[in-house]
């Protein structure tokens, strides 16, 4: 039997109640922002992304007797973060391509999670291919248009130097092939693509055609990216909804953010 | 007739569908972060909150041929932002009182909006009193436990110097009385309190007992604050749900954030 369609006021009331009761679980997909969280490192001739830093303004002391607070600095692309179309040259002319311009209903949406953790454990350059996506669809049904697709690799469990995994020829970490991203964007019409690694592209993504295919193809089509996600092993393959709300940075190309997932509970 | 209770998986699927179709509207309660947005100004002997600043790292040029991005700096309490219990001395020992420690299910919840815009238009020091709250409840029913309560003043429509509204004796802007906050926290058990002004307290809130009663009482009881909210005139008095997800700043006392509201549509 199909579920009855609720009116929107009842839906929102029931959703708030289900979150309060725990029958919808809220899962934090975000890493803690601190000075130690790694940021992408580019060849030295390029401009670099700043790590997170914070400076105490007062702490219930002579600088502010009743309050504590900090000033902070970081890059738009530091820590768990959102990539807007304007981040990439292919998306520079996309309408509403900055984080302050994206329609806010784009920030809440259904999510499909493709588990590549076994492959990524064996091979640090593991590729998400069209075959893996088509196999996933045999078990879970077609990826719905306008969904987020997240590539689970358990890379978020790595710490320190193992996270960027730099070698003499650059970073090594898993990511999608150009054909996989084309399938997701052109044929499935996804809203965006997210990873546990420092970028939506593989560490060696510069060697594909086009280089950095996830960035190039996603943003050229006006789609979004999420990076440095955490806790993807706590999401079901389908049925969760994520909320990913970038800061409203004027002409921002991306934003650190708190990503949460609403996950159906045991009653489902 | 009461609505049928849906299972959580159906609820999430219908919610995602309702947002996609527009029958649930997503409203942005956030101001744009730019260099011009005012921050609170304290007496000069105290530490000060930084304005938002951004610096270009590259813009599809020699500093990064295919990408554009910025480094940014600001205060935890710059722009539309969240106050955690640890922000105030009364909340310094509250368990899980920093933004990285708050359980993430606290970031999605129902909201009541008390319209004080007519009063605030007449009187820049307009006070939200227990009488106004009790009157509101006569029309809209009791404020449910664990709700957000937002004080609408239309102050968000002010620009430039009119926003902080500084005079020789300090800032003048509307806010709640100590008794109003005690009623909301102690008797109604609200989750948090939000305003359109630069703080949860009135501009002249230092003259109450206790000084800055919203900060003191809310945070001392482990509750949250939202400030510099926008578009509160687009919310119904009851029935909307807000999503307010602070950045996961390690030991952060607050955070700039994107606040969105899910608002029942015309079918309701
Ligand atoms: Mn990025
Ligand atoms: Mn604050």
From TrEMBL, chains A, B:
Residue ranges of coiled coil: none
Matching entries from Gene3D superfamilies are given as: Putative cyclase
Highest rank taxon of the organism: Bacteria
InterPro entries recorded: KFase/CYL, KFase_sf
Record-linked Pfam families: Cyclase
SUPFAM superfamilies recorded? Putative cyclase (SSF102198)
For the biological process aspect of GO, one term held by this record is: L-tryptophan catabolic process to kynurenine
**Molecular function as annotated in GO:** arylformamidase activity
Name the record gives this protein: Cyclase family protein
């Amino acid at each position: 039997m199909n579920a009855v369609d609720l009116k929107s006021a009842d839906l929102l009331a029931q959703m708030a109640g289900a979150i309060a009761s725990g029958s919808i679980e809220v899962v934090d997909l975000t890493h803690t922002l601190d000075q130690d969280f790694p940021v992408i490192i580019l060849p030295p001739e390029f401009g670099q992304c700043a790590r997170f830093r914070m400076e105490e303004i007062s702490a219930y002391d002579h600088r502010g007797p009743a309050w504590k607070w900090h000033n902070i600095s970081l890059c738009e692309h530091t820590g768990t973060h959102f990539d807007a179309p304007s981040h990439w040259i292919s998306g520079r002319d996309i309408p509403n391509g900055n984080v302050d311009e994206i329609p806010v209903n784009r920030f809440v949406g259904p999510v499909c999670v493709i588990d590549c953790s076994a492959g990524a454990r064996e091979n640090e350059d593991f590729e998400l291919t069209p075959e893996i996506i088509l196999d996933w669809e045999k078990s879970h049904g077609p990826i719905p248009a306008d969904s987020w697709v997240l590539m689970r690799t358990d890379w978020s469990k790595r710490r320190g130097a193992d996270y960027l995994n730099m070698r003499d020829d650059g970073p090594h970490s898993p990511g999608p092939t150009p054909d996989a991203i084309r399938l997701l964007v052109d044929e499935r019409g996804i809203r965006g693509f997210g990873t546990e690694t420092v970028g939506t592209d593989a560490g060696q993504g510069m060697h594909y055609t086009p280089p950095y295919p996830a960035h190039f193809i996603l943003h050229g089509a006006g789609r979004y990216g999420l990076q440095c996600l955490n806790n993807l092993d706590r999401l079901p393959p389908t049925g969760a909804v994520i909320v990913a709300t970038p800061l409203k940075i004027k002409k921002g190309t991306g934003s650190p953010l708190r990503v949460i997932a609403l996950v159906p509970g045991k009653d489902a």
